[in-house]
């Protein structure tokens, strides 16, 4: 059981927007930066968002991150078929002294 | 260009040992935190262990997930630009694809660059 909670799946039509939530607690999200990763089928994860809302170079601004208290959110606008993937949130947990990932959310483009 | 190449995976019996390596290039290896993340077949990501970079008051500090603490040891050889994961007392539940990743800085909290992984199978 992960200490972070994500919805198992979200879906939307091409061009639409989806949001993925990541819920934690005071020992993790509330006091540490959150990152988001995209994992396309059969590939290694890729960093999409770091430090709650920053995008690495090369990541389009269709991807955005936000955080409030013990929850974080990944937003994807202008949904494309190439965005079909698993998305994971991650953050440090002060109680565990370890990094934790959420269980992952599968994004489906209808 | 940052490149990470894992090796050392394979089939091992329960209770056995294996050492994974991650050869790094394209950056000043010693300056960055490095992590191991695994993914069991059909499952999500699990952070396994991390080791801090040298430019830090916590230089070389290591961290482990509870699931591997006392069985796995992370280390690095900055002269060889290589990260290691020594895995002892292996269990069936350790079967997974093991990725190494480089942090954005000296910390062990963000997988900014990833290798392609090496597969570890624990089975009799």
Features:
heterodimer; A: 110 residues; mainly beta; 9 strands; B: 124 residues; 7-stranded mixed β-sheet; 4-stranded antiparallel β-sheet; 11 strands; globular
Describe it.
The complex is a heterodimer of chains A (110) and B (124). By secondary structure, chain A is mainly beta. Chain A has no helices and nine strands. In chain A, strands 1, 3, 4, 7, 8 and 9 form a six-stranded mixed β-sheet that branches. A three-stranded antiparallel β-sheet of chain A has the order 2-6-5, with no helix packed on it. Chain B is built from no helices and eleven strands. Helix content of chain B is 0%, strand content 47%. Chain B is globular. The N and C termini of chain B lie far apart (40 Å). In chain B, strand 4 and strand 5 form a beta hairpin. With 124 residues, chain B is an all-beta fold. At the A-B interface, strand 3, strand 7 and strand 8 of A face strand 5 and strand 10 of B.
* Overall average residue pLDDT of chain B: 94
* Helical proportion of chain A, percent range: under 10%
Radius of gyration of chain B: 14 Å
Q: What is the makeup of the main sheet of chain B?
A: 7 strands, mixed
Cα-based radius of gyration of chain A, to the nearest Å: 13 Å
- Category by helix and strand content of chain A: mainly beta
Termini separation of chain B comes to 40 Å
Q: Low-confidence spans of chain A: pLDDT under 50, at least 5 residues? A: none
Mean pLDDT of chain A, to the nearest integer, reads 96
């Amino acid at each position: 059981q992960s200490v972070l909670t994500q919805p198992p799946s979200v879906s939307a039509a091409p061009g639409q927007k989806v949001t993925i939530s990541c819920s934690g607690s005071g020992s993790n999200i509330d006091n540490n930066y959150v990152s988001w990763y995209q994992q396309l089928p059969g590939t290694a994860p890729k960093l999409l968002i770091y430090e709650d809302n920053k995008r690495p170079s090369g990541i389009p601004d269709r991807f955005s991150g936000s955080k409030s208290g013990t929850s974080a959110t990944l937003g994807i606008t202008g949904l494309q078929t190439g965005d079909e993937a698993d998305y994971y949130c991650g953050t440090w947990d002060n109680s565990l002294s370890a990094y934790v990932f959420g269980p992952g959310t599968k994004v489906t483009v209808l | 260009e940052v490149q990470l190449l894992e090796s050392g995976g394979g089939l091992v019996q329960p209770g056995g040992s294996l050492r994974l390596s991650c050869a790094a290039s394209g950056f000043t290896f010693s300056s960055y935190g490095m992590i191991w993340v695994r993914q069991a077949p059909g499952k999500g990501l699990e952070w396994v262990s991390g080791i801090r970079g040298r430019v830090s008051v916590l230089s070389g500090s290591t961290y482990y997930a509870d699931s591997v603490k006392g069985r796995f040891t992370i280390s690095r050889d900055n002269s060889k630009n290589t990260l290691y994961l020594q895995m002892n007392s292996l269990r069936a539940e350790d079967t997974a694809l093991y990725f190494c990743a480089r942090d954005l800085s000296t910390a062990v909290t963000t997988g900014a660059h990833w290798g392609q992984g090496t597969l570890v199978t624990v089975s009799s």
